[in-house]
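Support request, please re-run this one:
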Amino acid sequence: MLKTMKEPGFVYILTNPSFKEDWVKIGKSSVSVEKRVKQLDGTSVPLPFEIFATMKTVKYNEAEKLIHRYIERFTNLRIRDNREFFNVKPEDALAIFRDVAMVLDDAEIDEVYKKSVTDDVETHASGQRIMHTPSRSKKIVWMVPANSKFFDLAGCLEKYGYVYWSQYYHFQTGDTVYIYCSSPESRIRYKMIVEAHDLNYSSEMEQEREFYVDPKDFDMPVSHNRFAKMKLVSESSSERLSLVHLMDHGLGMAPRGAMCLNGELLEYVSNLF
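Re-run finished. Output below.
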């Protein structure tokens, strides 16, 4: 009996002018993405979706699940459970698409709406695009969420005192990073300092594989090949750093991605470390 060949489908990144900044829809479709966008037009979203990028592959179901899982590995970037909306920059989502495509034999990426970026992107001899943090003199204070469902950050810091963080944001050496541990802890726990940024993978980083709930998940950061080394400065168990208190001092909602701290919230957090 002849084996029926599976037809390829698509995984897509969609943006929308009505979305908040850095919100995207990442989904799948067995029909063309252009047709899928037309199907979505007329839903509760007031303005039409725009295609940022697509991936064509026969394994589009598996690819979509892998991309969703990867985005959620360290953070709570999914806007709502069981929905395809994420609080992530489309460029960062596209970088994840490229990583996933590397492990698929037939994946074809179409960078439909890719922004023109030249100053901070290097093309490696292998063809891989490597992002670089734009040079700046001002140090930034960040808050970054971490998800213990995917990575045992506490265990890693207890053993080594530092972590190699998969870098999708423009961290720079000397920046301060407060780590917000997501639910069920839901509070800032660690103060870190960025010791190095834009690092390529090295064998030393393999020591962190043991702290992944699924060790295979470490393969994706290796493929992305951009890390920041963050050293532990101090740890706090203060309940005053819990979500409810942070929201009382200017935080709008539980962080779903890296964010810069300033104003009242920065002063409040800094005074508790």
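Residues 60-72 form the longest helix (13 residues). The longest strand covers residues 187-199.
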